[in-house]
């Protein structure tokens, strides 16, 4: 009966309150009782056991109206529908639109892509801006074909107010995912958003990517975030070389002739001190790689590394583990070494005492941009003298293993039938073009190298449930996000694997029934996953799931930003992200009292094609909140855009405050 006493006297419910408990209540709190008398309890404390809670709630219902919590229901429908503090509170859903922020463009009426979707009035700009029409050619054509409007019109085919629904119903602000003025990768940004300081817990993105792809990591293994990429082959024709490098040279030198561009390409091949066979033309060999990727990964898996690049035996044998992720991505790890029976005394005797140990204190091979040379793996600098002599030797040995692994992967991939098939396809296109035939097909990049990036071992991260008191699931086909969530103790939803291809006749922009983690992803599959996790039923507005925090992540907007594809960014925001928002806030969406937050992990402006340090728009609302009765949970912002949210009530804050803010939002609504 202690619970009734506390509620009747307006004490906060300690297991869900936004503020600390009073001293009296703390003495009877669930956490304190479990701490002091844990061995005596069988299961949960009384007020958390359904068979005890029901009669207690019925007695609470008999109290005068003045003593009832303001959010009480009128009748008891079942054991799940208790009064007062919910035993299973409505969930918190965090909708992360990867890379959503952007810049204003003259072609959009000096608006950002988000403002076009929100229907913001076009504006005049006193400063003459450099036009970037190449970004918007496809989007402009789409407008003309679907209503005959222009991108500079207020209402275009991309207009969809559903994306701003959370902003209209809740509170908005500006969010620095990590800290102001710092651009960051998706891994560090998500760590910060989940409440883990990257400076304390970040080891490298390789482990997240590998775990997300499904690799099993041993304590001594090191993992990498890896891409299938295209390394220039010395047998390439000038036509192929031009195809591979036009992105890098024509964009920089639009006034130069073809021959002048080719001369620059050849000059880079033979640059002093560089290997002309290690020139990376495309870091991402192919976005549409779902058929070839799994085949190549299976082919490379368990490849042995037991020598250096000159085939001098190493004292230990290591194996390459590869698992396909999405698009051009894969998870890759190198196993801890075992003694090499073929090893004889040589220059590597100094590494014998390492016993096959590997280090993640190394650089990668990824040049980070197209049209650059493959980097050589080396130990990181020890300028601050924080590493011991043994640690530095381990890093030096690991660099040898990685260099050989990169080399043997290239050798094996170059000879694979898939790449032979692609070469034949390219030669056929080249010959047809030489004959003057009109060819609509495109060249296919050769997937002959894998890039190594973000070396990391499996590190320790406190469980999300321990850190925040929430049971969390994550819905993210993108491996690095799924793996990071799993490291934090979130249950990662597993999507069924598929090898089907996109049916462009049925829907040219959606891979029906498949959550691919790219632009073509079917977001309705993710919505179905959310309903399954929360056990939502159409005619029952309450969740029966133990999960009370769900991360729903979409990647297509970020991919469009990296590819500098304005049409894809506008389409994904207006047709797919808006669909998610509309479904979650519909009558058959999230239960009343749920909290829905929408944000990004970073901005990926189209004109840059990469992450930047700009803050991202943030909005959060409580589902079912009446703006007239509870105006404190609504600040009057009408659009979810980079500019509108600057007037929001949440102000500007850092990623580490996101989860506490969502919890306080829910508690404020219920109490």
TrEMBL record:
Gene Ontology biological process terms, A to Z: glycolytic process
Organism domain of life: Eukaryota
Catalyzed reactions per annotation: (2R)-2-phosphoglycerate = (2R)-3-phosphoglycerate
Stretch forming the signal peptide: none
Stored Gene3D superfamilies: Alkaline Phosphatase, subunit A, Metalloenzyme domain
GO molecular function: metal ion binding; phosphoglycerate mutase activity
Pathway as given in its UniProt record: Carbohydrate degradation
Keywords of the record: Glycolysis
InterPro entries given in the database record: Alkaline_phosphatase_core_sf, Metalloenzyme, Pglycerate_mutase_ApgM, Pglycerate_mutase_ApgM_sf
Domain Metalloenzyme: 92-634
Identification of the protein by name: Metalloenzyme superfamily/2,3-bisphosphoglycerate-independent phosphoglycerate mutase, putative
């Amino acid at each position: 009966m202690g619970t009734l006493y506390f509620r009747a006297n307006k004490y906060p419910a300690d297991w869900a309150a936004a503020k600390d408990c009073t001293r009296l209540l703390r003495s009877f709190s669930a956490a304190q009782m479990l701490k002091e008398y844990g061995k005596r309890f069988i299961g949960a404390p009384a007020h958390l056991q359904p068979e005890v809670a029901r009669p207690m709630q019925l007695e609470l219902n008999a109290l005068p109206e003045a003593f009832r919590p303001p959010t009480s229901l009128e009748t008891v429908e079942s054991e799940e529908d208790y009064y007062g503090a919910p035993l299973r509170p409505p969930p918190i859903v965090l909708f992360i639109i990867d890379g959503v922020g952007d810049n204003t463009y003259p072609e959009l009426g000096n608006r950002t892509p988000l403002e076009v979707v929100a229907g913001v009035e076009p504006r005049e700009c006193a400063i003459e801006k450099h036009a970037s029409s190449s970004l918007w050619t496809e989007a402009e054509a789409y407008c003309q074909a679907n209503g005959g409007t222009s991108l500079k019109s207020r209402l275009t085919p991309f207009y969809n107010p559903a994306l701003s629904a959370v902003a209209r119903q809740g509170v908005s602000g500006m969010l620095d995912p990590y800290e102001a003025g710092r651009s960051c990768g998706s891994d560090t940004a998500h760590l910060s958003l989940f409440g883990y300081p990257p400076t304390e817990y970040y080891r490298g993105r390789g482990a997240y990517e590998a775990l997300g792809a499904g690799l099993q990591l041993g304590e001594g293994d090191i993992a990498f975030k890896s891409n299938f990429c295209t390394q220039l082959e010395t047998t390439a024709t000038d036509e192929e070389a031009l195809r591979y490098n036009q992105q890098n040279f024509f964009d920089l030198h639009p006034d130069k002739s073809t021959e002048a561009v080719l001369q620059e390409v050849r000059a880079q091949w033979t640059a002093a001190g560089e290997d002309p066979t290690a020139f990376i033309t495309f870091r991402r060999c192919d976005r549409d790689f779902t058929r070839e990727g799994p085949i190549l990964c299976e082919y490379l898996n368990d490849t042995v590394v037991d020598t250096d690049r000159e085939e001098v035996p190493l004292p230990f044998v290591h194996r390459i583990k590869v698992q396909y992720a999405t698009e051009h991505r894969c998870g890759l790890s190198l196993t801890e070494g075992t003694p090499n029976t073929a090893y004889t005394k040589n220059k590597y005797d100094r590494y014998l005492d390492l016993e096959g140990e590997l280090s993640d204190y190394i650089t990668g091979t990824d040049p980070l941009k197209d049209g650059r040379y493959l980097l050589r793996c080396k130990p990181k600098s020890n300028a601050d003298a924080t590493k011991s002599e043994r640690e530095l030797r381990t890093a030096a040995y690991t660099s040898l293993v990685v260099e050989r692994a990169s080399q043997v992967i290239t050798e094996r991939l170059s000879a694979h039938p898939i790449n032979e098939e692609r070469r034949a396809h390219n030669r056929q296109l080249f010959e047809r073009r030489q004959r003057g035939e009109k060819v609509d097909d495109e060249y296919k990049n050769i997937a002959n190298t894998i890039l190594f990036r973000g070396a990391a071992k499996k590190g320790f991260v406190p469980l999300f449930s321990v850190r925040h008191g929430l049971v969390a699931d994550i819905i993210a086909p993108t491996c690095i996000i799924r793996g990071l969530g799993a490291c934090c103790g979130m249950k990662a939803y597993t999507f069924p694997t598929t090898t089907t291809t996109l049916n462009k006749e049925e829907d040219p922009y959606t891979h029906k029934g498949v959550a691919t983690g790219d632009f073509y992803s079917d977001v309705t599959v993710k919505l179905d996953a959310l309903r399954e996790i929360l056990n939502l039923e159409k005619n029952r507005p309450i969740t029966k799931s133990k999960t009370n925090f769900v991360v729903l992540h979409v990647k297509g907007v970020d991919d469009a930003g990296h590819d500098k594809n304005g049409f894809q960014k506008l389409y994904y925001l207006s047709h797919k992200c808006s669909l998610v928002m509309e479904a979650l806030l519909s009558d058959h969406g999230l239960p009343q009292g749920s909290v829905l937050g929408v944000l990004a992990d970073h901005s990926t402006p189209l004109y840059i094609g990469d992450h930047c340090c700009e803050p991202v728009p943030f909005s959060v609302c409580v589902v079912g909140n009446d703006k007239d009765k509870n105006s404190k949970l609504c600040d009057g912002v009408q659009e979810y855009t980079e500019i509108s949210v600057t007037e929001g009530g949440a102000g500007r804050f850092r990623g580490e405050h996101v989860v506490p803010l969502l919890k306080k939002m829910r508690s404020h609504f219920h109490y």
